[in-house]
Design a protein that fits this description.
Helix content: 25-40%
Number of strands: 17
Distance between the termini: 49 Å
Strand content: 15-25%
Structural class: alpha/beta
CATH class of the largest domain: Alpha Beta
Oligomer: single chain
Bound molecules: zinc ion
CATH superfamily of the largest domain: Metal-dependent hydrolases
CATH topology of the largest domain: TIM Barrel
């Protein structure tokens, strides 16, 4: 199959005007000039996307697909109150609701040009959703408890879920990992037990880390609404918690989790240069989630310092419960604008940098850059086509600028994972979003409470 477009963005090489990408089976075979590839492969089936960009699919480093139906339910609260409100409403959904909500999340990912999700799931429903939608994913089994008597059972049930999910999942697209939720929901002994259980295995580990100021205050000083109201709501009011006197990063580091071989910290907003030294020394990757961090009043991650320390980091949307949409163009745009706004003319980020964060840098964060993240012969054919022909995009001088400054998820023309087209000009090939509409309405009534 020969894909054509006005612009081809391999991402790790200069863009090609009037370019083409040859895909066979699940792989990218050749990337080059349209005329050359048409001449070399005259019998190949051709799909021409016209005034569009062909580029690697987006790699969403942080999402919770199963929360798709929570979109707009808790829109205007700061982090801790938002978290408590979402937690309170989780009990309103039944098992089938979580299945359908995750399926909705997968549809939205495809529509937004996301080809890989690093998804944290408690229910496990995103495994079936990602599998049947045809997406690629690293799916982390979430666990948490502050109850010391529950640590063994919480950990063993997580490990057993991971083993059974691995059996369900296509290993060429899906990897199962583990996610201790974060410093304010995991007892330090849980961190320690998890670190011992993972040991030297290359298991993908993700945790929410240094996200909100309340989390920082809770860990360091022992006092914040997360230490009182949230713990009471979670049934952990009787569990002793002493101030640790250190930042969330250094606190988690003490319990061995950051030393594991393949760790990603989500958010990392409240980190100082010493914390970033720790992250670098442990080779911890970071998911930068600018819209979630701004919308919930968490702050702004210091990505300039991440770059100076050469951390591996990319972009994450977080769940629709926090960000409302998983529009990756919005994520790039808001992430770029926030950083330009606070950094001024020094450390001025280009649109191209953010396209890289959305693709190849995300792949590096997941240690999957040998397979995905750029258009290169031998890599998996995870490719999207993005329309650049609309009135608000014309004229297009620089495809990177057009993608970051003008595009929305509706501009995605085609989403391909592993050489298989999942969505093409309005038609979904692996999922049927129509029956979901009625279910979504039912579920929204439930979660409104
Ligand atoms: Zn999250």
């Amino acid at each position: 199959m020969l894909l054509l477009a006005r612009y081809v963005l391999p991402v790790n090489a200069p863009h090609i005007e009037d370019g083409a990408v040859l895909v066979r089976d699940r792989e990218i075979v050749e990337v080059g000039a349209r005329a050359d590839l048409l001449r070399a492969y005259p019998d190949e089936k051709v799909i021409d996307y016209g005034l569009a960009a062909l580029m690697p699919g987006f790699i969403d480093l942080h999402t919770h697909l199963e929360y798709a139906v929570f979109r707009g339910v808790v829109d205007d609260l700061p982090y801790t109150r938002w978290k408590m409100e979402v937690q309170r409403r989780e009990a309103l959904l039944g098992d089938q609701d979580w299945v359908d909500s995750a399926a909705l999340g997968a549809v939205e990912a495809i529509r937004s040009g996301i080809t890989t999700v690093a998804d944290i799931t408690s229910s496990g429903t995103s495994v079936a959703a990602v599998q049947s939608a045809g997406l690629r994913g690293v799916l982390y089994r979430e666990l948490s408890t502050m109850d010391t008597s529950a640590i063994d059972s919480v950990l063993s049930s997580a490990l057993s879920d991971m083993a059974s999910w691995e059996k369900q999942a296509d290993p060429s697209r899906i990897t199962i990992g583990i996610s201790p939720h974060g410093p304010y929901t995991c007892h330090p002994w849980l961190f320690k037990a998890l670190a011992d259980a993972v040991g030297t295995a290359d298991t993908h580990v993700a945790l929410h880390l240094a996200g909100s100021r309340d989390e920082y205050d809770f860990v360091k000083y022992g006092s914040s609404p997360l230490g009182q109201d949230f713990r009471t709501q979670s049934g952990w009011a009787d569990e002793v918690w002493m101030p640790t006197g250190v930042s969330p990063v250094r606190y988690v580091y003490q319990w061995g989790v950051l030393d594991l071989p393949n760790v990603m910290g989500v958010h990392c907003v409240h980190v100082d240069p010493d914390d970033i030294d720790v992250l670098k020394a442990c080779d911890v990757a970071v998911a930068y989630c600018p819209r979630c961090n701004a919308k919930l009043g968490m702050g702004i991650a210091p990505i300039g310092d991440f770059q100076t320390h050469e951390l591996r980091f990319g972009l994450g949307t977080d769940s629709p419960a926090s960000t409302s949409t998983i529009d990756f163009f919005e994520e790039m745009r808001v992430g770029l604008l926030i950083q330009r706004g606070i950094r001024g003319e020094r450390g001025f980020y280009s649109a191209k940098t953010f396209v890289r964060l959305a693709t190849i840098e995300g792949a590096r964060a997941l240690k999957l850059d040998h397979l995905i993240g750029s258009l290169e012969p031998g890599k998996r054919a995870d490719i999207i086509a993005v329309d650049l022909s609309q009135s608000y995009q014309t004229p297009t001088q620089d495809p990177y600028g057009a993608l970051v400054h003008t595009c929305h998820q509706e501009d995605v023309l085609m989403t391909m994972v592993d050489g298989r087209i999942l969505f093409d000009r309005g038609t979904f090939h692996t999922v049927d979003p129509e029956p979901m509409r009625a279910r979504v309405e039912e579920m929204r009534l439930k979660v409104r409470g």
